[in-house]
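Table 4 source record.
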Amino acid sequence: MTKQHISILGAGNMATALAWHLGNLGHRVSLYCIEKKVEKRINKKHYNKKYLKGVKLPLTVSATDNIEASLKDAKIVIFAVPSHAVDVVMLLAKPYLKRDTVIVTISKGLDVNTLDPMAVSLQKLLPKQLSERVCMLGGPAIAAEMTANCPTAFVVASQNAKARQTVAEIFKGRNVKTELSDDLLGVGLASALKNAYAIAMGFCDGLNYSTNTKSIIVTLAVDEMSKLLSKAGADTKTSTSLAGLGDLLTTGYSPYGRNRKYGEKLMHARRSEPHKLGIRTVEGIAAADAGLKLAKKLNVKTPLLAVIQKCIRNKKDFSKPFVNYLANFQYADPTRASTLRTSDVNRSR
């Protein structure tokens, strides 16, 4: 495929890993970076020590604090900023976007006002010609593992077949594979919600619970995501795809997963703020709040999500709601009408 000029808006952990990957494939990559020290180090030393230590960037990658310069002649624009900053960065970028630009977001979150995932939120900010080509990049991808050449897979979702095919081809590499999806809404919702559920997997680590318990949480999380996706009008199969189950497992088991790490530390913390626990960004906190609002709007019961939010929002005893939940919940097999009770077993003898 023809080598492209790609603008990545953001210079954090994943943005830098994407730049490393795309730059190594021969694409010219411009990182929009608002931190002067980070920008200078990328351009002079070819390292982003603050966000992706030890990874040397190819010479095809550069950084700039000028968004117009970053976007100039870019055919692909990737939003890789925290979800709460997506709208702000889009307003800065919008005047410089070309009519044939393909917009991609890897920001995984829900708009706090509309409850839309970031990809849908971006669509609403763009004229039709650009909005119909918006893509969402989802799936299990840890930056440090990708830059160590571990096999990685992304799902590229868009309502426009040509746009998703273009993005998929650009990202394909020896160790990076891509899957196509037309379920932009579902991939966006699953990508955001898994962050909240990964916090609960961190709760298990903080309380020294076994993989037995973590497996229960994964099963319940996927079930709740599936119900939310169904009521929202998305494809329920997306909840068990790379964007749902795949991303949840990576985020919830990896030592690099910030949401998991936050949940682990919260179980024995005195304060719930991420920075008090030495963690920069925890997307799952806002996702839990917005996810519960969405569940209420769609009339979907999500008891696990509710417990996650309760633990985070407690003033103290952050572990208590989760411990009580696990002690008292009953697992209802979704293929059966009701929960299996002891009396049911006795009657069958």
